[in-house]
Amino acid sequence: MALIQTLTVIVLTLSMYLVNLPFLQRVSSRLTTVFCVICTCIVYLVLSLAKTYTMYVLIYGVAFGCFIGLGYMAPMKNCYSHIPNRKGTR
Questions:
Q1: What are the CA-CA distances from residue 24 to residues 2, 36, 56, 71, 87 (Å)?
Q2: Residue 38: what pLDDT?
Q3: Fewer CB within 10 Å: C terminus or N terminus of the chain?
Q4: How far apart are CA 68 and CA 7, in angstroms?
Q5: Which pTM does this prediction carry?
Q6: Numbers of helices and strands, H then E, in the chain
Q7: 77/82 Cα distance (integer angstroms)
Q8: How far apart (Å, rounded) are the C-alpha atoms in residues 65 and 68?
Q9: How far is CA 74 from CA 6, 14, 54, 56, in A?
Q10: How much is the pLDDT for 86?
């Protein structure tokens, strides 16, 4: 279980930087969030078909972490675009 959690957190952190890619800058935050929710549901479906523990760890850790990271950063990108001069200030 610790292996799955560690891999998920690592991939989640790395996938948050994908929001800065040029093609994701042109996509709306709503569309990105809906895409991530649908893909997360698909990941759960694929997890039910995993035959080995290694496959389960890789699917859950990599795919789930990636889509959750992108899903969390979509609202952040929206906030940054609407309030560009107050990033992290009170």
A1: 31, 13, 28, 12, 20
A2: 92
A3: C
A4: 13
A5: 0.69
A6: 5, 0
A7: 9
A8: 5
A9: 23, 14, 30, 27
A10: 66
Nearest one of 48, 51, 40 to 74, comparing CA atoms:
40
Tokens standing for residue 15: 């996938």
CA distances from 70 to 51, 54, 67, 86, 90 (A): 27, 24, 5, 22, 26
Chain centroid to CA 82: 21
**Which residues neighbour 49 within 8 Å (Cβ) at sequence distance 6 or greater?**
none
Give the C-alpha distances (Å, rounded to integers) separating 71 from 2, 54, 59, 63, 77: 23, 25, 17, 12, 10
The two tokens of residue 8 are 């998920």
User: pLDDT tens track of the chain, all 90 residues?
Assistant: 777 788 888 887 777 777 667 776 777 778 888 888 899 899 889 989 989 988 888 888 888 888 888 888 777 777 777 776 766 665
